[in-house]
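Continuing the batch. This is chain 6 of the set; chains 1 through 5 are on the previous pages. Same settings as before, nothing changed between runs. Recording input and output for traceability.
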Amino acid sequence: MIHRIHLQDVQQAKQLLEVQRAAYFVEAELIGSFAIPALHEDLQALQRCDETFYGYWVNERLVGAISYKKASELLDIHRLVVHPASFRRGIGKALVQFVEHAEEDMERVIVSTGTKNLPAKQLYTQLGFVEVGEKEVIPGLFITLFEKKRFSKAS
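Output for chain 6:
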């Protein structure tokens, strides 16, 4: 079941932090760098962030989460994390599709991932995102930028 994560709820925030760290640890190994900021985020920093979070819960346990920000007609996905014990179960796909549906008035959706994170790149491509560039965020560490253009239902 997917529903909103309330970061001021300490238990929810702690579960999110646990899933986030486990997921980003796997990504760090894939991309060959542990310089992912969210991998080192503490509870207080997470609770202060201004992203909107939704979680995928199984038996009252958080197994995946997505966060995003909105600006004008742009939906910017900031985080998509799935606990490694729940990989390959369609959770990441379900979370992206949920947010896209919930925010269907957004004309563009953007997301990025480590260039060497092939599973994430394949997921975004499968979901209709198009690779639009690559960026070196620190020396030797590249992220791939994806975008999906949509028509606003309001038009």
